[in-house]
Protein backbone atom coordinates (compact mmCIF):
# COMPACT_ATOMS: atom_id res chain seq x y z
CA UNK A 1 0.00 0.00 0.00
CA UNK A 2 1.22 3.44 -0.90
CA UNK A 3 0.09 6.77 0.51
CA UNK A 4 -0.55 10.19 -1.00
CA UNK A 5 3.10 11.15 -0.51
CA UNK A 6 4.04 8.50 -3.12
CA UNK A 7 1.79 10.02 -5.81
CA UNK A 8 3.70 10.92 -8.98
CA UNK A 9 2.88 11.40 -12.64
CA UNK A 10 2.51 8.07 -14.44
CA UNK A 11 1.77 6.05 -11.28
CA UNK A 12 -0.85 3.34 -11.84
CA UNK A 13 -3.33 2.77 -8.98
CA UNK A 14 -6.51 0.84 -8.25
CA UNK A 15 -9.43 3.19 -7.56
CA UNK A 16 -13.16 2.30 -7.56
CA UNK A 17 -12.36 -1.25 -8.77
CA UNK A 18 -10.64 0.06 -11.91
CA UNK A 19 -7.02 0.72 -12.88
CA UNK A 20 -6.11 4.39 -13.28
CA UNK A 21 -2.96 6.23 -14.32
CA UNK A 22 -2.16 9.56 -12.65
CA UNK A 23 -1.95 12.20 -15.38
CA UNK A 24 -1.54 15.30 -13.16
CA UNK A 25 -1.29 15.93 -9.45
CA UNK A 26 -0.90 18.86 -7.07
CA UNK A 27 -0.09 18.73 -3.35
CA UNK A 28 -2.10 21.47 -1.60
CA UNK A 29 -1.42 22.68 1.93
CA UNK A 30 -4.00 25.34 2.74
CA UNK A 31 -3.40 27.77 5.59
CA UNK A 32 -6.40 26.38 7.40
CA UNK A 33 -7.38 22.72 7.43
CA UNK A 34 -5.62 19.50 6.44
CA UNK A 35 -3.41 19.03 3.38
CA UNK A 36 -4.72 17.16 0.33
CA UNK A 37 -3.64 15.99 -3.12
CA UNK A 38 -5.66 17.06 -6.16
CA UNK A 39 -5.26 14.53 -9.00
CA UNK A 40 -6.38 13.94 -12.57
CA UNK A 41 -6.81 10.20 -13.17
CA UNK A 42 -7.18 8.43 -16.54
CA UNK A 43 -8.90 5.05 -16.62
CA UNK A 44 -6.73 2.49 -18.40
CA UNK A 45 -9.76 0.39 -19.34
CA UNK A 46 -12.24 3.02 -20.59
CA UNK A 47 -9.98 6.03 -21.25
CA UNK A 48 -12.19 8.37 -19.20
CA UNK A 49 -10.46 11.14 -17.25
CA UNK A 50 -11.72 12.17 -13.83
CA UNK A 51 -10.64 14.63 -11.16
CA UNK A 52 -10.23 13.32 -7.63
CA UNK A 53 -8.99 14.73 -4.34
CA UNK A 54 -7.21 12.51 -1.82
CA UNK A 55 -6.79 13.68 1.77
CA UNK A 56 -3.20 13.66 3.10
CA UNK A 57 -2.10 10.23 4.30
CA UNK A 58 -4.87 8.42 2.35
CA UNK A 59 -3.78 4.85 1.46
CA UNK A 60 -3.84 3.97 -2.24
CA UNK A 61 -3.35 0.58 -3.87
CA UNK A 62 -0.49 0.70 -6.34
CA UNK A 63 -0.40 -1.51 -9.45
CA UNK A 64 2.98 -3.01 -10.32
CA UNK A 65 3.71 -2.25 -13.98
CA UNK A 66 6.56 -2.71 -16.45
CA UNK A 67 7.38 -0.50 -19.42
CA UNK A 68 8.44 -2.19 -22.64
CA UNK A 69 9.48 -0.82 -26.04
CA UNK A 70 7.29 -1.85 -28.95
CA UNK A 71 7.43 -0.98 -32.65
CA UNK A 72 4.18 -0.04 -34.38
CA UNK A 73 3.68 -2.36 -37.36
CA UNK A 74 0.36 -1.50 -39.02
CA UNK A 75 -3.29 -0.60 -38.35
CA UNK A 76 -6.15 -2.91 -39.30
CA UNK A 77 -9.42 -1.04 -38.82
CA UNK A 78 -9.62 -0.22 -35.09
CA UNK A 79 -6.92 -2.78 -34.22
CA UNK A 80 -3.26 -1.73 -34.06
CA UNK A 81 -0.43 -4.28 -34.33
CA UNK A 82 2.79 -3.85 -32.30
CA UNK A 83 6.00 -5.91 -32.01
CA UNK A 84 8.23 -6.13 -28.93
CA UNK A 85 11.70 -4.89 -29.95
CA UNK A 86 13.44 -7.36 -27.58
CA UNK A 87 11.80 -10.73 -28.27
CA UNK A 88 9.78 -9.94 -31.45
CA UNK A 89 6.52 -11.01 -29.76
CA UNK A 90 3.52 -9.34 -31.46
CA UNK A 91 0.44 -7.94 -29.73
CA UNK A 92 -2.71 -6.22 -30.95
CA UNK A 93 -4.32 -3.28 -29.17
CA UNK A 94 -7.62 -1.51 -29.63
CA UNK A 95 -7.62 2.08 -30.93
CA UNK A 96 -9.18 3.41 -27.66
CA UNK A 97 -6.07 2.59 -25.57
CA UNK A 98 -3.99 5.02 -27.68
CA UNK A 99 -3.99 8.75 -26.91
CA UNK A 100 -3.22 9.99 -30.44
CA UNK A 101 -3.54 7.04 -32.86
CA UNK A 102 -3.76 9.40 -35.86
CA UNK A 103 -0.12 10.49 -35.31
CA UNK A 104 1.28 6.94 -35.24
CA UNK A 105 3.48 6.15 -38.25
CA UNK A 106 4.49 2.61 -39.18
CA UNK A 107 7.86 1.77 -37.63
CA UNK A 108 7.44 4.24 -34.73
CA UNK A 109 8.78 3.07 -31.34
CA UNK A 110 6.36 3.48 -28.41
CA UNK A 111 6.43 2.49 -24.73
CA UNK A 112 3.64 0.14 -23.66
CA UNK A 113 2.88 -0.17 -19.95
CA UNK A 114 1.87 -3.73 -19.00
CA UNK A 115 0.55 -5.05 -15.68
CA UNK A 116 3.27 -7.26 -14.14
CA UNK A 117 0.89 -9.97 -12.78
CA UNK A 118 -0.95 -10.93 -15.97
CA UNK A 119 1.00 -9.16 -18.77
CA UNK A 120 -2.13 -7.18 -19.74
CA UNK A 121 -1.33 -3.97 -21.72
CA UNK A 122 -2.61 -0.93 -19.81
CA UNK A 123 -1.54 2.13 -21.81
CA UNK A 124 0.62 3.30 -24.68
CA UNK A 125 3.05 6.21 -24.22
CA UNK A 126 3.82 7.95 -27.49
CA UNK A 127 7.17 9.71 -28.01
CA UNK A 128 6.92 13.40 -27.06
CA UNK A 129 7.43 14.49 -30.69
CA UNK A 130 6.96 12.81 -34.06
CA UNK A 131 8.22 13.95 -37.46
CA UNK A 132 5.68 13.57 -40.27
CA UNK A 133 5.52 14.75 -43.90
CA UNK A 134 2.81 17.09 -45.19
CA UNK A 135 0.79 15.35 -47.93
CA UNK A 136 -1.78 18.09 -48.60
CA UNK A 137 -2.20 21.77 -47.72
CA UNK A 138 -3.47 24.87 -49.45
CA UNK A 139 -0.87 27.49 -50.44
CA UNK A 140 -0.57 30.42 -48.02
CA UNK A 141 -1.81 33.81 -49.15
CA UNK A 142 0.91 36.43 -49.54
CA UNK A 143 0.58 39.31 -47.11
CA UNK A 144 -1.54 37.36 -44.64
CA UNK A 145 1.25 37.10 -42.06
CA UNK A 146 0.49 40.07 -39.79
CA UNK A 147 -0.78 37.70 -37.12
CA UNK A 148 0.10 34.12 -36.29
CA UNK A 149 -2.16 32.84 -39.06
CA UNK A 150 -2.42 29.09 -39.54
CA UNK A 151 -3.95 26.76 -42.10
CA UNK A 152 -4.98 23.10 -41.93
CA UNK A 153 -2.56 20.53 -43.33
CA UNK A 154 -2.89 16.77 -43.76
CA UNK A 155 0.12 14.67 -42.73
CA UNK A 156 1.14 11.24 -44.05
CA UNK A 157 -0.84 9.38 -41.35
CA UNK A 158 -4.07 11.16 -42.32
CA UNK A 159 -4.22 13.51 -39.31
CA UNK A 160 -5.04 17.19 -39.81
CA UNK A 161 -2.78 19.69 -38.02
CA UNK A 162 -2.88 23.50 -38.03
CA UNK A 163 0.43 24.80 -39.40
CA UNK A 164 1.87 28.25 -40.22
CA UNK A 165 1.27 29.66 -43.71
CA UNK A 166 4.85 29.08 -44.92
CA UNK A 167 4.54 25.27 -44.67
CA UNK A 168 4.09 23.54 -48.06
CA UNK A 169 3.35 20.03 -49.30
CA UNK A 170 6.39 17.75 -48.96
CA UNK A 171 7.75 19.59 -45.89
CA UNK A 172 8.48 17.53 -42.79
CA UNK A 173 7.20 18.96 -39.51
CA UNK A 174 7.71 18.09 -35.85
CA UNK A 175 4.43 17.55 -33.98
CA UNK A 176 3.88 17.55 -30.21
CA UNK A 177 1.94 14.34 -29.46
CA UNK A 178 0.47 15.60 -26.15
CA UNK A 179 -1.79 18.15 -27.88
CA UNK A 180 -1.35 17.35 -31.62
CA UNK A 181 0.17 20.76 -32.35
CA UNK A 182 2.82 22.00 -34.76
CA UNK A 183 6.28 22.60 -33.20
CA UNK A 184 8.68 23.35 -36.07
CA UNK A 185 9.67 22.58 -39.63
CA UNK A 186 12.38 19.91 -39.93
CA UNK A 187 15.18 20.43 -42.45
CA UNK A 188 16.66 17.37 -44.16
TrEMBL record:
The protein's annotated pathway: Protein biosynthesis; polypeptide chain elongation
Elongation factor P C-terminal domain ranges (all copies): 130-185
Subcellular location(s) of the protein: Cytoplasm
Keyword tags: Cytoplasm, Elongation factor, Protein biosynthesis
Location of the Translation elongation factor P/YeiP central domain: 67-122
Domain of life: Bacteria
Name of the protein in its database record: Elongation factor P
Family affiliation: Belongs to the elongation factor P family.
HAMAP family: EF_P
SMART domains registered for this protein in UniProt: EFP (SM01185), Elong-fact-P_C (SM00841)
NCBIfam families, per database record: efp, PRK00529.1
Function: Involved in peptide bond synthesis. Stimulates efficient translation and peptide-bond synthesis on native or reconstituted 70S ribosomes in vitro. Probably functions indirectly by altering the affinity of the ribosome for aminoacyl-tRNA, thus increasing their reactivity as acceptors for peptidyl transferase.
GO molecular function: translation elongation factor activity
Gene3D superfamilies: 2.30.30.30, Nucleic acid-binding proteins (2.40.50.140)
PROSITE patterns according to UniProt: EFP
Entry keyword Transmembrane helix: no
Amino acid sequence: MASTSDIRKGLCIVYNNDTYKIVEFLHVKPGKGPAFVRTKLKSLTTGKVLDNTFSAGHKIEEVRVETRKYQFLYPEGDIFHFMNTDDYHQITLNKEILDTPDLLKEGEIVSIIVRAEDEAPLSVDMPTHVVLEITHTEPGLKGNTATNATKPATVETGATINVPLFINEGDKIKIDTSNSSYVERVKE
